[in-house]
Amino acid sequence: MKDDLDRLEKELLEHPFDTERRRTYAKALMGAGRVAEAGKQFELLGEPLPAPPSDAAVPAASGLHLVPADAAASAEVEHETIGFDDIVGMEEVKKTVRLRIIEPFKNPGLFARFRKKRGGGVMLYGPPGCGKTMLARAVAHECNATFIGVGISEVLNMWIGESERLLSAFFERARAERPAVLFFDELDALAFSRSKARSEHSRTRVNEFLAQLDGMDADNDQLLVLGATNMPWDVDPAMKRPGRFDRQVFVPPPDASARAEMFRVKLFDIPTEALDFRRLAEASPNASGADIDGMIELAKEHVLDEILSGGTERPMRDADLLAAVRDTEPSTVEWLRTAENLVKYGSGGGQYKELAAFLRTVKF
Amino acid sequence: MAEVDEMNRCDELDILQRKVSACLDVDRHAEARELLRRAFEIDPDDPGTLALAIRFERRVENTERALEVGRRALAVAPHDYETRFLFALTLKDAGRYPEAERLLLQLIRDFPDDPDLIAYYGLLMFYALHVEKAEALGREALRLDAENTIGQLVANLSALSRGDANAASAALARALDDDPDSEVLLNQIGLVLVEQGRYAEALDVFQRLLRTSPNDEDYVDLVIRLRAMSHPLTWISRTAQRVGMVGMFAVYVACIVSIHQLNEHGYTRAAMWTAIAWILIVVWSWTGIQVMQRWVRARGVR
């Protein structure tokens, strides 16, 4: 199994755009129990993470699951690219993204008259597991553009000595497929602040990235470069200058109505009593989509444990889910505390206005 | 066939090690941990992997574990430069200065022209409060490599500790010309500004550092303290700190004499109000900075 995984990883390094190879690799990762890595690969493919094997107690680490669990379990089914309508909640973010990213693509004439270039870079930032990657895919779908995703495994491969060539190849491929969305997941890993980097190699990589973004030797018109990061403060400041990732969009944890909807969708085909989704949502403030996956898995384990020890089969109840919610610390809290340090004590509110406004409205 | 397998294994280990190194370079600790686990599965006794594991444990500030891995690494590769160097630094982290010194001296005997070794030895001496020796070692490291960051750090810390903030400031200004974004240098500049009593400017510097590392609670505490120190309401506390114990004692005596004199000449009310004001000032000078720190922590820095 391990040898197969290594072989598939090497093949993917050689053929980063081969979706079939990526799908095979993702499934192999899933089979090996490396669910988080598999989740990233499936996100890049635009496919939901299949249900984990029944003996794997690892909660899914991907963002939102928007299809019922039985459909998600069928990895052979080709799924449509995710659009905005498939994303639960995030209404404000969707509105911002539509206005600032999608419309320039959809109305080229209008933007041409105003001599405004289409494309450029947008950085999506926010706590982990809140749907940044899914949002990026939806942007590509809404723009009717080709989506090319660069995940952490590509970045890791770039670190073994061919970063400049691979980075350039990704940009070339995206330019050839215009209009295209080139999406860099975990942007901070690739564009780590040069003032913090400990090796010359990191600096060279950032310089190459900057040159590609600036389109020094090529035309980046109709090329939208999206980046997602949990740690925007680790991204090199030069990356955020005009013409690069100068537009930054905060992707917050889902609000109460979005959480209620997520519980509803994720429990769609699970045997349950009539559940009070609003109450569940209120009991799980700041929980991300990934956290809700974890909570549901925990509740399932509790119910199955009871059935297997007691002998009587019963559906899942509010109490099972509420107990799971109580036992789960939202993974966003640590991120929110760090972000609070930035805004409250570091005077970072000017640069991160949406984040500062959000922090004023939440308790954690 | 066995040879081919061995070559593949070596290639894979090499790739994993390079990835771990890169992960550590950009603070991706979770990925580094997973890659290290995979590297150890291939060869649990590989000196390169063990050295990376020491780096990883030091980076996540797990000194005990770093020492444990370091001992294992030294047992496998007792003469490996990197292993010995990292183990010496881990001993320093653990506060075991004599053992760290012994190991660094052995390394310096083997590699006498290595500026890093000399600079780190200087830093160790600084921690052990041998400031003059630290300064000399810092100078020697800079003689071998004028841009050695640790050498500069030792030289500046030494200058600061003997109260020569101006010398440190001038050296830092020169270094900053070469590397204006360096966080290490900014950190030192902040320390120099604090030493010079320029709290508002130091606050700017540390806020800038906090913006790049908001998860660093040390920066948060420092920013809160500096905001409290630079607030106009803590002027009395700052003055009290500046004049020191002897100065404050002299002021106390002068005030008691004044109150006594006012009372003697029949200005009883004036003496009373002066006494009350004086008591309030004294109490505020003792507690003002702490009160302000709590205020700033609750409200934030604006």
Can you write the helix and strand succession of chain B as a string?
Answer: HHHHHHHHHHHHHHH
Backbone structural class of chain A = alpha/beta
Radius of gyration of chain B: 27 Å
Strand content of chain A: 5-15%
Distance from first to last alpha carbon of chain B: 68 Å
Alpha-carbon distance between the two ends of chain A: 42 Å
Write down the secondary-structure element order of chain A: HHHHHHEHEHEHHEEHHHHHH
**Chain pair sharing the greatest interface:** A-B, 32 and 32 residues
Beta-strand residue fraction of chain B = under 5%
**Percent helix of chain B:** over 70%
Report the principal-axis shape of chain A: globular
**CATH-wise, what's the superfamily of the domain at 113-229 in chain B?**
Tetratricopeptide repeat domain
Q: Please tally the helical runs of chain B, counting DSSP H or I stretches of 4 or more residues.
A: 15
Going by CATH, the architecture of the domain at 113-229 in chain B would be: Alpha Horseshoe
Mean pLDDT of chain A: 78
Characterise this structure:
The complex is a heterodimer of chains A (364) and B (302). Chain A is built from 16 helices and 5 strands. The radius of gyration of chain A is 21 Å and the shape is globular. In chain A, helix 1 packs antiparallel against helix 2 (19-31) and helix 11 (256-266) crosses helix 12 (277-283). The longest helix of chain A is centred in the middle third of the chain and has 25 residues, at 152-176. Helix content of chain A is 52%, strand content 7%. In chain B, helix 6 (97-110) packs antiparallel against helix 7 and helix 12 packs antiparallel against helix 13 (217-230). Chain B is built from 15 helices and no strands. Among the domains of chain B are: 113-229, Tetratricopeptide repeat domain (Serine Threonine Protein Phosphatase 5, Tetratricopeptide repeat); 237-299, no CATH class. Chain B is 82% helix and 0% strand. Chain B starts with a helix and ends with a helix. Chain B is elongated. With 302 residues, chain B is an all-alpha fold. The chains are: A alpha/beta (364), B mainly alpha (302). The A-B interface holds A 2, 6, 152, 156, 159-161, 188-189, 192-199, 201-202, 233-234, 338-339, 341-348, 351 and B 12, 15, 18-19, 21-28, 31, 35, 41, 181-183, 207, 210-215, 217, 220, 223-224, 300-302.
